[in-house]
Amino acid sequence: MTKTALVVGASGIAGSAAADLLAEQGWTVHGLARRPVERAGVQPVAADLQDAAATAEALRGIDPDAVFITTWLRQDSEAENIRVNSAMVRNLLDGLPKPTGPRHVALVTGLKHYLGPFEAYGKGTLPQTPFREEQGRLDVENFYYAQEDEVFAAAARDGFTWSVHRPHTVIGLAVGNAMNMGTTLAVYATLCRETGRPFTFPGSAAQWSGLTDMTDANQLAHHLLWAAQTDAAHDQAFNVVNGDVFRWQWMWSRIADWFGIEAAAFDGTVRPLEQQMAGDAGLWREIATRAGLAEPDLASLASPWHTDADLGRPIEVVTDMSKSRRLGFTGYQPTDDAFFALFERLRAGRLIP
């Protein structure tokens, strides 16, 4: 029988990839977002998860075999992140009809589980790398923990199984996404090529020369589906990355080569993209007009603050995936290929020239 999925955040980087994969696999897919976009094989569900009553009404009659929670809303403080994002998960799970059969709920969080929230990101006493799932929570308030607790409480009440997925920085396509390094770097490289500005690494020496990894959205989607369908993966938390490691001093040149520009030498100075791109909105609009691009609004494509947070970390960040491997997940994605595939999609979609 055809299985039914509810993808929450279906217009985002992770959610859109998950929705597409599930549709390809023959699932009946409901894609929930505040402003759903048309996707082949995905039935749109419009709902604001901050409104409990409206969420319950939007979910009336949907009895999913699996729920994939891939969304969050950034707030001005971690206290507000906790209040808003835990309520969104609670409203979703309270608003769903009670399961009539087995149900699995997958929650996507990230490496801030180990690195701390934005207000204390990469500071204080951190777990040793590579990060492993058994390292547990930091002694600090974190909206990821609050989201998890909502899932755990609802699972105990309603009897569904769960999984938590912690990707590193996700590479994928979604316009208007708040955390979008791949498209941000593509836009930055395009600006450097158009103006002759140096393609300068914006981050720290630790990130430039240390080891790191990333997560392709399609790799994450396959991991979500694997966990939902694998009994041994139920009621477990997992890291999920591509499977390779690299240094940014190598990857920066690879990205520069793809755009036909030269990577500037790194002198150890942190030069945040938020400062480098601060006055580029008008320039991007000119480029978009001249090249006939689909999105002239720079803020809808690039999220420099998020890229700066990742590339400015003072420690190397490497993620262990042994837990998934032991349980049978074998997915692998070279990260440079993931960047290049994204850049091709951006060009094909007229989002970069």
UniProtKB/TrEMBL annotation:
Q: Where is the NAD-dependent epimerase/dehydratase domain?
A: 5-240
List the SUPFAM superfamilies hit by this protein, alphabetically: NAD(P)-binding Rossmann-fold domains
Question: What name is this protein filed under?
Answer: NAD dependent epimerase/dehydratase
Q: What species is this protein from? A: Novosphingobium barchaimii LL02
